[in-house]
Amino acid sequence: MENKSIEEIVKKVLESMTGGAAMNASAPSVSRAPASGNSIPKTARVAKLVEKGRFEIQEYPLPEVGDGDILVKVEGCGVCGTDAHEFKNDPFNLIPVVLGHEGTGEIVKMGKDVKKDSAGKDLHLGDKVVTCMIFKDNPEITMFDLNKQNVGGADVYGLLPDDDVHFNGWFADYLLIRKGSTVFNVSDLDLDSRVLIEPCAVLVHAVERAKTTGILRFNSRVAVQGCGPIGLICIAVLRTMGVENITALDGNDKRLEFAKRMGASKTVNFKQYNGIENLTKAVEDSFGGHPADFAFQCTGSPVAHANIYKFIRNGGGLCELGFFINGGDATINPHFDICSKEITIVGSWVYTLRDYATTFDFLKRANGIGLPMKELITHRFPLEEINEALKTNLSMQGLKIAIINK
Ligand SMILES: [Zn+2]
């Protein structure tokens, strides 16, 4: 076969995989048009939280795009527990604010200085991106300096108070990614996967923290307590790493069913057991009569935190990641629970930039081995129904709620 015809075939195959984007892959970069093909409007909408419990859709002129800036047309954004807390009580004092930090979209315009993403990948018009954090104080920081720096100390789009730009959060038609922000080209992931990147990064980070104990191994018996999105994704991350002996705990049979599909080998519904002794026995029975080598605490319940020590063997490990916000004090017995058992405990909160990059590969692996990641998104709302979306989240219906544009 002639080289030319092989080239043609390869082009055709790539085209069918990428919906035409590959046709331009070898053409001079910059000229690539946005896949949406729409021209950029003069004005666009943001969903602004104007008071506790109420977003208002407001229209603003789209901002100037500076030499180091990127204008993104938003495709979707997950609703986070953080958004729900802010919506309900404004604990972060951000109102008025355009929320939404689990978003993704397509580059429709970028400044002349923008060439590569934070991992060194080329950026073009039409590429799909996510943002991670913004280092206002030190824009020179690159991702590989940051292996140990948690996002907790940085700003994030979607948690910035409103200003003259307005397009500061992903609950909007457009987002202006300003110079000095981190941005990743994730064009090789579909929309649902991209919406799940942020919550998945939380679990990639937690498992990385767990690994520092040296206790988590392929053949470990692992208990995952709490089967909300966080616990379910925790199971998926463990499963993609090759951990197979996983017991999921929750009080809801539907969620436990889902946990099994995510890779849990056994489940325990704590509501079926009276008292901590019986519950501990049920967990041990799930491991063939052994306590867990390692446990992940993925609920925000103080009682659940206190209980989990009982499930762990002497010399075992615990990762506490459920208390994302202050959920109150837990009562434990330091002698029985920690000291005499020699338990190694790590806390985990948010993620680092490095975890973000790892998460893209995790999502590909999870999809590749058939884990039902996309079913985590149980509710989808258009931007104009954002108040409903937040209320749905607060009413604890479903798992992941997402705003999907268009
Ligand atoms: Zn979040």
CATH class of the largest domain: Alpha Beta
CATH superfamily of the largest domain: Medium-chain alcohol dehydrogenases, catalytic domain
Shape: elongated
CATH architectural group of the largest domain: Alpha-Beta Complex
* Fraction in beta strands: 15-25%
Secondary structure category: alpha/beta
End-to-end gap = 45 Å
Query: What is the radius of gyration computed over CA atoms, rounded to a whole number of angstroms?
Result: 23 Å
What number of structural domains do the residues give? 3
Unreliable runs: 13-33, 142-148
Largest sheet: 7 strands, mixed
Mean pLDDT: 89
Total beta-strand segments:
16
Per the CATH scheme, the topology name of the largest domain is Quinone Oxidoreductase, Chain A, domain 1
Order of helices and strands: HEEEHEEEEEHHEHEHEHEHEHEHEHE
Query: Which assembly state applies to the chains in this document?
Result: single chain
Helix content: 25-40%
Please tally the helical runs, counting DSSP H or I stretches of 4 or more residues: 11
* Hetero groups: zinc ion
Fold and architecture overview:
- There is one protein chain.
- The chain contains 11 helices and 16 strands.
- It is α/β, with parallel strands linked by helices.
- The chain has 3 domains: 31 residues, no CATH class; 189 residues, Quinone Oxidoreductase, Chain A, domain 1, CATH 3.90.180.10; 148 residues, Rossmann fold (3-Layer(aba) Sandwich), CATH 3.40.50.
- The strands form 3 sheets. Strands 3, 5, 6, 7, 8, 15 and 16 form a 7-stranded mixed sheet that branches. It has a 6-stranded parallel sheet with strand order 11-10-9-12-13-14, sandwiched between helices.
- α9 links the parallel β13 and β14.
- α2 packs across α11.
- The longest helix has 16 residues.
- The chain is elongated and about 65 Å long.
- About 7% of the residues have low confidence.
- Bound molecules: zinc ion.
- The site of zinc ion (ZN) has 5 residues, from loops.
